[in-house]
Amino acid sequence: MNVTIKDVAKKAGVSVSTVSLVINKKPAITEETRQRVLQAIEELNYYPRRIAQGLASKRNGNIGFILTDYHFSRAEPFYTKIFLGSEFEARHHNYYLLLTTIQNKFAQSDIPRFLLEKNVDGVILAGKVPTGLIEHISGYGLPTVFVDYTPPKGKYFAVLMDNIDGAKQAVGHLIEKGHRKIAFIGGDISHPSIQSRLEGYRQALMEANLVFNEQLVITSSPNTTDIDGYQSTCALIQNGEPLTAIFAANDAMAFGCNRCLKEKNIRVPDQIALVGFDDVELAIEMEPRLTTIKVNKEDIGAIAVKSLVEMLDTNRKINGKILAPVELIVREST
Amino acid sequence: MNVTIKDVAKKAGVSVSTVSLVINKKPAITEETRQRVLQAIEELNYYPRRIAQGLASKRNGNIGFILTDYHFSRAEPFYTKIFLGSEFEARHHNYYLLLTTIQNKFAQSDIPRFLLEKNVDGVILAGKVPTGLIEHISGYGLPTVFVDYTPPKGKYFAVLMDNIDGAKQAVGHLIEKGHRKIAFIGGDISHPSIQSRLEGYRQALMEANLVFNEQLVITSSPNTTDIDGYQSTCALIQNGEPLTAIFAANDAMAFGCNRCLKEKNIRVPDQIALVGFDDVELAIEMEPRLTTIKVNKEDIGAIAVKSLVEMLDTNRKINGKILAPVELIVREST
DNA sequence: ATTAATTATCGAAACGTTTCGATAGATCGA
DNA sequence: TCGATCTATCGAAACGTTTCGATAATTAAT
Known about the structure:
Oligomer: homodimer
Shape of chain A: elongated
Number of helices of chain A: 13
Largest interface: A-B, 37 and 37 residues
Number of domains of chain A: 3
């Protein structure tokens, strides 16, 4: 059969418990016996059976990763990449990721099985998840990390992208290029990250001693899609307020914005410069290629896992948030 | 502490083993005791600890899902959706999916940990994976299912899409529309699925008693991207051979094809009709919207899991392949 | 009515680890 | 030199199930 810890013990001429102590890097082991055990492990090509470790130690080495199926299967692989970063990081901490998708609205039958079967040590929740689920999960008392979403109430730990700083970088870049009349098109302002981006816009202007002109801020569109960007831009141009640059709250809106400008024969970046936010895959396909703020998705995933593992190792929960750094990518649209 | 099988046994007034028999739906249990046990389970809100089951039964209820990180994080969520379908199906068979990504070339250090730690009962390999890994995995004797890829040698079980049938449907559709001179642009013909699509093209013509005209078949392009489609189409038009329809071996090539035709002021579908293959997300954005062959990715993933679970349950391996059905989606380009 | 066959239930071992308390040996202090 | 303290190692219980062989109860066969 398979080689077990007993075989290792026999080969190294020590007890099973000693082998266990070596495997788990516990102190109080002579260097000499440690080496003997390690060598036996090597020679027998022994790997501890994860499942047995789990039963004995009451930690199963799994992390649950929950997101809505909508988020997971979107064309833009945003959460996929976050997951990828998480998986990679988890692997290096010797944890497994158990991914499960859920519906957008909470149903009792939708409760991830790994929770019921006590099969995870902690949970990562990515993107917006139904509050019903959040409440349910908190009942297990498991360490939990939110990613790219902050629950409406309660204590939590979240990994977010630095929206304010990103917006400041975007607008700062435009200011550096000499722009003074910079518009913001925002769409659905109820969304926390859009709010932050507007806040960053405001701060950047302030720091450069530029006035915040309400005529240049369009947040009337109901969503944050391509269409909203198109409409917001049309409205902005209609306004007649002079401007030389536009900061769109995300790339999708930037695309719509660009489309509108093209229709009105306004040249980008010559007449109006344009910056987006997110650096989606299509940003590089835009005509002209879009200057935008890049978020390293893999990093976000990795940070989430790292934080969770720390909670698991130290056995205490952390509250607050971590802001993942963002980066300005300058392309042709500015 | 947590409620265990013992608590259930006590509450139901039976032995632990009886509870286990009920849980695992073994025969030889009176309906009456079965009900008593079930009720106790319900009242105590008991769920077996997965990890304990695993240790005792020597099956851990996990399925390894391996794909290259490249495949996973592509913009087109092809494998993501396959995974999604797999995850869903696995959930319903009470299995967990352990996803791991690997590099494109095989390295010893890259061996998924769930293999070393004997943490999976079977493996799904999606997309092209390095042969070194395939050989390594076969050493474990685990039931294995390939998805959208057939290894170059050895026995295997694979879930593939029905390329031949899809091509036949595509070309058949064109023929039905009255087209007689139908071109095929294929790109990298060394790729098995492109070969099959060419074969389907050939069969469709044959069945309609149309001649196979080599002048109308372009397979000189080195890849199967947008660019290749563009170049192949230009070459085709240059040829001068009259034609009224083009079947592109995939959607990406169809996009390039469309771009070329647009440049040459050839109207789609009036002058030349165009069909693609894959139904990628962008197909609906093409101008005109692309008629194409749709593959249900979630189905493929589900079929893979279903087959694997069957192997696990019956404890014997299956060889051969399953072809997942494909479907013609008629849009504006024909 | 007795034995044989069948069925429902049970007890205990097994799965492969971790962990806790025990032990023997070494070191120390006075 | 003797007890006290410390250190390296060990033995055995524990984790929560499944499963196998045993047993008691029931049914069937003669």
